[in-house]
DNA sequence: TCATAAACGAGACGGTACGTCATGTCTTTTT
DNA sequence: AAAAAGACATGACGTACCGTCTCGTTTATGA
């Protein structure tokens, strides 16, 4: 996981050095994976990236900003389009859990959420990001509306919220390896409801 | 608000001094409310409580332990029992949001969740606590099962999880003042499902 | 070097428990030998002696007092009486160095001197003790005066001071294993002087 | 006195800030004079110097190192050269006592000796320093040898040791205001010896 | 062409908090 | 009455990071 391509990276003149930025983002990710959020400090990232702390502060005014960019660099999770909403949602959650579990994304996003609890700007950034993601997720639902699978008056934002909340809580409580059946149930309840059919 | 009933609290012999414990828990809560999770340090709590740091560390081995006890001391939120599950769930969420909004509980619980992202023991403690709460919430659902309102084969743990997740995410993203209608929708979707009725 | 004859020493009622006192003094000596002055704390002594700190503070108001008693308990060094002052002084120094080197006395006395540099009462106690010792040493010289070996007008206190100073400095600078010849020279210079004989 | 020439001393780049070093050494001296060795803590020095503790630890790895540098910064005591050894030695001791008495040097050096009793590195540093000073003092004696005042076979190191020991003990036992006559006697005994002339 | 400006690594700076240790005082319980 | 036990407030220990600063170097750009 080496991050120091060149042993002595230098300024490349009066502009941002992409190598440095890359090294810093790489280092941030590595530190987060190796030492967790507890060991994630600007100091540690700078050491690992062989970068000066001011270089980091110049481009990322806060830990949150750095975390956010690290998260955004990562591959997005696939949103399936099977033609059936329930399958789409289950597939999405399965993919998301696997993504969070198997890459560093989970650690990064957890850290970002944690950071947002003490850092106002992190909270704002996370809110922005979440808004974007939610509307993205809502598209799955909108597609289902278009297909007539669900009524038009369903508030897709709320549904997306329910789904995302379920994912967040599993991430935050270390339950990403949850049984697939549980995911299925959760989605099914949202799809079909839990009330007994009016007989 | 005041935490120093006696200006010079002393040892009361070879056993825990309840006054000190009380002062420390009070101070922890006050610090958290006034300065937020970012300003919540053992140092600050000790200062505010006029207690020694070792006294805190003696009884609460980690920030997490202190946070957890502060949270548990607080009044529990009412779980309504109206005889109709949907009303119960909506009422529960409304009460919970109000509780989190209007008392320090929200700040405390947020902090606890954040702490759990970097502290293993905090994570374990939170998991324990959540388990207890979830089963508690599940009782609402079990009651509905008993009434025949919902089928017996519904996994009440998953339902409780959906509800709790929704609450957590609103807490963590500063959306406790969410429109009541939204809560209603969310619960309704879980109750009735979002799928269009098979026509 | 066990100091706890009985694993559960108890109070013996309303009077000083000699076993405790003994255990504490033993423990003080042991701690000093094993951990040096740096590790010599009331806390450590209490732990080692299985005694309560207040018990120590009751009988020895300061570290200095404890050190002093530990030092005084120890066997005194022999003061030879060979009938010749020079031999007496050399013998005394040799015995003293050996005593300091081979028993815990050296460590204890060093610590006492060090303690006296920051503790006023220790300084006073040390001054008292030194006065006694000096007059004791001066007796060697007085005997020589009586024998007519040295003139009566010699200030034996100053001579004792010179000899004691030499010893102290060797103790304080870890030079107790100094060559015997050096001791001989030092005493010889004091006895015969270093000036060239008036020819 | 005052230690904060500039109210907000800052870093001057990636190298040692002489202002900070100066402020710290000044503060160390002041603290030692005002509060004695007992009150001499890195914490106190940092407070007084308005410096961060890590800054002190960066440059002086131990209290001993700081003490030593404080001592070495101070003006050296004059070594007289009157042409007569006895006068030189008496003058040297008088100057030394006055220097120790009237400046902070006495306190500093006492503390250094005390520190050396518990800190190995302090002991080594002190030994080094003493060696240098002893050879320095020995020069007085060597000069006397050159003049034929004393025989060549006199071990000047031992003589210097006797003189320095006398000074140390007076310092360590608060007897720097000793009668001048006593100093005279001590030197005289070393010069002429105390033995009665062979009649 | 060459001065300027910006970015770089490095690392020192004044601070705050960490978690631990020792201090000397206190009270309860036991003998 | 004294001892054990151990909790207490206090404060120093030495370390890790914080975010800011200045250095000396490097390179692209613009006068």
From TrEMBL, chains A, B, C, D:
Residues passing through the membrane, by range: none
Highest taxon in the source lineage: Bacteria
Gene3D superfamilies: Homeodomain-like, Tetracycline Repressor, domain 2
Signal peptide (from-to): none
Domain HTH tetR-type: 18-78
Gene Ontology terms for molecular function: DNA-binding transcription factor activity; transcription cis-regulatory region binding
Keyword Transcription: yes
Statement: the UniProt record of this protein carries the keyword Ubl conjugation: no
PANTHER family linked to this entry: HTH-TYPE TRANSCRIPTIONAL REGULATOR RUTR, TETR-FAMILY TRANSCRIPTIONAL REGULATOR
Protein name: TetR/AcrR family transcriptional regulator
